[in-house]
Amino acid sequence: MSNAFDDLLAHNREFASNFNLQGFDGVAKAGVAMVTCMDSRIDPLGMIGLVPGDAKILRNPGGRATERTLVALVLGVNLLGVNRVLLVQHTRCAMASKSERELLMDISEAAGVDASWLDLGAIEQQRLSIIEDVHRVRSHPLIGDRAEVGGFLYDVDTGLLEQVA
How confident is the model at residue 52 (pLDDT cuts 50, 70, 90)? Predict the structure, then answer.
């Protein structure tokens, strides 16, 4: 029976044939956690010269420090060796390109179902939201001084990171 995932499972078998993270304890070897957008143009590990096993990678629309992201960072900082946190948004992000209302209208139209009840978290002022998210992580009582926190803007056209906060 043909499956929509056959190509991916074939690639997985190839990947597994050279798999070398057996027995790894899950600690971030480079002490890094990165929060970034789900955008497929972003290679979180590659952009900072790391490989699997080096960092915790957390992705969501817009690369925001959401409540669940903060939970993951608390775990990373206190139990999994994280001592540096990068909050990375990017240029030409859909979450920063339109208002919340416009995005909800686009989704409603594409889905053919009213999506106005969704809370997307559209980004009105990208640089300001990066600064706010850095403050949110730094001021968390279970993170605080336990990790260095930086906010960055990734340029999807050049591959360069700019530190904003």
Answer: very high
